[in-house]
Structures are given as structure tokens and as C-alpha cells.
Amino acid sequence: xNIDWLKAIQLKPRDFFGLLVFGFxxxxxxxxxxxxxxxxxxxxxxxxxxxxxxxxxxxxxFVALIPSLNEKWEAKKEKSSILGRLxxxxxxxxxxxxxxxxxxxxxxxxxxxxxxxHSSLSQKGLLVQASGYGDQTNWSFSIPDFVWKYxxxxxxxxxxxxxxxxxxxxxxxx
Length: 174
Fold this sequence. Notes:
The chain is mainly α. The protein folds into two domains: 5-83; 89-159, Arc Repressor Mutant, subunit A, CATH 1.10.10.10. The chain is 60% helix and 6% strand. It has nine helices and three strands, in the order ααααααβαββαα. The protein has helices at 5-8, 13-28, 31-37, 40-45, 47-84, 91-103, 117-123, 145-153, 155-159, and strands at 107-110, 128-129, 139-142. It is elongated and about 80 Å long. It starts with a helix and ends in a 15-residue tail after the last helix.
């Protein structure tokens, strides 16, 4: 039997946690229940190996948990950064987001030619362009869910920053 140990240590944290719980159950299950499950003799003969395996599972669980927690922390930091960009919107960008918020719609169709603010909002992470094919005069964009939830929670504060009509802005240069 050939075991690829490198793949074994690349398991997900939940897999190591499962092995850890299983090892603890094998080690500390009362004798009556161990006898009922037929593992009492196995546990007595291999207690040392079960203990080492359980300790190994604990160590690998901690090691596997660190990158997982780091990814979640980075994602939370990125979301916080994107929400911070709401304070730096110019009048037209604010008007587009306010238009959606007032109407209660998470998506909006924008003119790619006469409304150039979609690209700056997309770069700030506040709008996501729909994939696929579309018309340059009517392309669908949506506000990410976490931004939308934040905007709904802070609706009055956000809408009060600028006083502008309830319509989408137009580029005055064209």
C-alpha cells in the first residue's frame, strides 16, 4: 500500500477536526460504550498509536486552520476597504448609487458611452459588470451584496451627502 503523505497533510481543517474528535472519542469513551461498539480491546492494545494520531491531527488542524483564518481576515479587510470608498465618491458616482438605493434595486442598466462613471465605480468595487454580451447603450451592473446591505443599513446618512435629482446622471460633454 503506497500512501501519498503530502496529500494527507493537505486535508481541509474540517477533516483534521473530524479525526481529532474521532481520536478523542476512541481514547475517552467509557469502557461500557467501548465494549458495546466492540472497540475496547482495540483501544487497549493501540492506545499509544491512537494518542499519537490524535495529537498529530490536533497539530495539523492548527496548521491547516491558519491559512483559512487568514483568507477570511483578508476578505473582511478587502470588504472594509471597499466600504470605505463610499466616502470618496464624486457627485455623479454618488448619484448612480443613490438612484439604485432610492428605487430599492440592486442592479442598474448604464450607458457605457454617455455615463463613464461605471468604470470608476467598478474599479472601487462598488459596481460589478454583468458578464456576457450587451449593448453599449444599456449594460447591466449590480452592487455587491455586502455593499447593498451596508447601504440599506446607512440609507439616510448616505442619501444625505448630496442633494441631486432622482435620476441617473448624464455626461454633459456629449
